[in-house]
């Protein structure tokens, strides 16, 4: 397997006494497209900011393209695109002025791509020449996405990029992501709460919980293998089932979530009163992150 593009080892981050990242290990391979999931406040933005060196971790190591993130070269920086959760555009400029400014900074800036996206995403002459601070939240989010894509990055980090977009805008963005960005082999890390979007674009999912990546795998495989096994408490063995994620007592029954069905689940399924149910992505999110 080729060397990881992103490598995080034992990364910790505290805000005061609150531990947000707890010795987190994570690696992302070239061309991987990963959806990052977690509850509100789980630390997704913090994780992405530490990954990019925008926030200093309190412990551990982060490398991007094999370089320590604290001393990242201009070349490596030029290969990264980032859409933050809150847009950080120069809002006193107009879109045309902002893109002129960034074009001068990035050798690989693709003006044709910017113009094409502006046209397809409904930026007529009037919007292109209006100060960004007077644009709507969704319009500003579209500009942040265009800015992140314009230099055709090899690593694209998106922190809830579609939260302000309407369904038409979201679909247009996802089409661009799937048809252009992912098609080109770009490595993508994408946090969102819109699970249906992830099912469309993310081949891999990673769940952040208690400051660590609690579960990661291919979306299809996770959904195919994950089951809720509801068992009379007396029938359930005390030892964890193979691939067990969590178990919870519900009256006389115990509900066990497994990532993948092993022989023990097949055996239990034959016992009277046992139910084995498939999980949706939403079920899996709730079960893994609760
Ligand atoms: N600058 C800061 N100072 C103090 N606490 C912070 C700061 N930034 C984030 N936190 C805290 O760290 C935790 C993680 O926040 P973060 O924004 O990374 O979560 P998130 O998973 O991105 O959440 P959401 O899904 O709501 O966007 C939260 O409890 C938050 O209150």
TrEMBL record:
GO terms for molecular function: ATP binding; ATP hydrolysis activity. PROSITE patterns: ABC_TRANSPORTER_1, ABC_TRANSPORTER_2. CDD domains: ABC_DR_subfamily_A. It holds the Pfam family ABC_tran. Residues 6-235 form the ABC transporter domain. Keywords: ATP-binding, Cell membrane, Membrane, Nucleotide-binding, Transport. It comes from the Bacteria. This is ATP-binding cassette domain-containing protein. The lineage of its organism: Bacteria, Pseudomonadati, Pseudomonadota, Betaproteobacteria, Burkholderiales.
């Amino acid at each position: 397997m080729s060397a990881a593009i992103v490598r995080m080892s034992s990364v910790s981050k505290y805000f005061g006494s609150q531990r947000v990242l707890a010795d987190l290990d994570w690696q992302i391979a070239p061309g991987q497209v990963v959806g990052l999931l977690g509850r509100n406040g789980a630390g997704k933005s913090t994780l992405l900011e530490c990954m990019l060196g925008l926030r200093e971790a309190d412990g551990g190591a982060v490398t991007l393209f094999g370089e320590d993130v604290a001393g990242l070269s201009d070349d490596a920086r030029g290969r990264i695109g980032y859409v933050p959760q809150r847009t950080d555009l120069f809002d006193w400029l107009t879109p045309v002025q902002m893109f002129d400014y960034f074009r001068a900074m990035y050798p690989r800036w693709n003006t044709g791509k910017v113009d094409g996206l502006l046209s397809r995403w409904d930026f007529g002459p009037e919007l292109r020449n209006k100060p960004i601070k007077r644009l709507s939240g969704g319009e500003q989010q579209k500009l942040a996405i265009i800015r992140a894509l314009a230099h055709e990055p090899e690593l694209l980090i998106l922190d809830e990029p579609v939260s302000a977009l309407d369904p038409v805008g979201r679909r247009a963005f996802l089409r661009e992501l799937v048809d252009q960005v992912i098609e080109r082999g770009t490595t993508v890390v994408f946090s969102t709460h819109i699970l249906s979007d992830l099912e469309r674009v993310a081949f891999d999912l990673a769940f952040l919980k208690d400051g660590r990546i609690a579960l990661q795998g291919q979306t299809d495989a996770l959904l195919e293998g994950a089951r809720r096994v509801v068992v009379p408490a007396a029938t359930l063995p005390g030892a964890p089932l193979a691939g067990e994620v969590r178990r919870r007592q519900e009256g006389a029954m115990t509900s066990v979530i497994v990532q993948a069905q092993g022989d023990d689940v097949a055996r239990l399924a034959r016992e009277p009163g046992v139910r084995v149910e498939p999980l949706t992505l939403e079920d899996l999110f709730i079960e893994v992150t609760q």
